[in-house]
Design brief:
By secondary structure, the protein is mostly beta strands. Strands 1-2-3-4-5-6-7-8 form an eight-stranded antiparallel barrel. It has one domain. A hairpin with a 3-residue loop joins strand 6 and strand 7. It is built from one helix and eight strands, in the order H-E-E-E-E-E-E-E-E.
Length: about 160
């Protein structure tokens, strides 16, 4: 009798846990189903002080990202750890900071980006300088060959 009661309590607990799944709104698209996101923040859009990135996941776990900032632009190929846009991901990026005579430097390298399930995102990576512009000439950073890449901001799954 004791085993039957324990088994029934265990089955009831399992039922309660699985009842928490969100099956109430089958027509409503959840954030886990979305495949497009817009990111806004600091050092986004190619490493600009303020920038915006747009990401789309054309196939499972892989995303393509492009962005612009106040005076920069960038591109990235992303691999998400989960099959959803609101998950952490590894990215291979190209950042160009500055344009024309204000071009500072261009970087290529890997980044790790952490996304909470809702709103917050931040990333850190390592970039190799592939091009130096006129704005870096004559500064103490003229001989730099690599840099820390980072960003922080908010994202909105669409």
């Amino acid at each position: 009798m004791k085993q039957i009661v324990i088994t029934l309590l265990f089955a009831f607990a399992i039922h309660v846990l699985f009842a928490q799944e969100n099956d109430y709104y089958p027509d409503k698209q959840s954030d886990n189903d979305k495949k497009v996101a817009i990111n806004l923040g600091v050092m986004m859009g190619g490493g600009s002080l303020l920038g915006v990135d747009f990401e789309v996941m054309p196939v499972n776990r892989f995303g393509i990202q492009a962005g612009v900032g106040l005076s920069s632009f960038g591109f990235g190929l992303n691999y998400h750890f989960k099959n959803r846009i609101n998950s952490p991901f590894l990215s291979f990026v190209y950042w160009q900071q500055g344009l024309k005579e204000n071009h500072y430097a261009s970087y290529v390298g890997p980044m790790y980006n952490f996304r909470l399930k809702k709103v917050l995102q931040f990333g850190i990576g390592y970039g190799i300088v592939v091009d130096k512009g006129p704005a870096i000439q004559g500064t103490k950073f003229e001989d730099v060959t690599s840099a820390l890449l980072y960003n922080i901001g908010i994202f909105f799954p669409l």
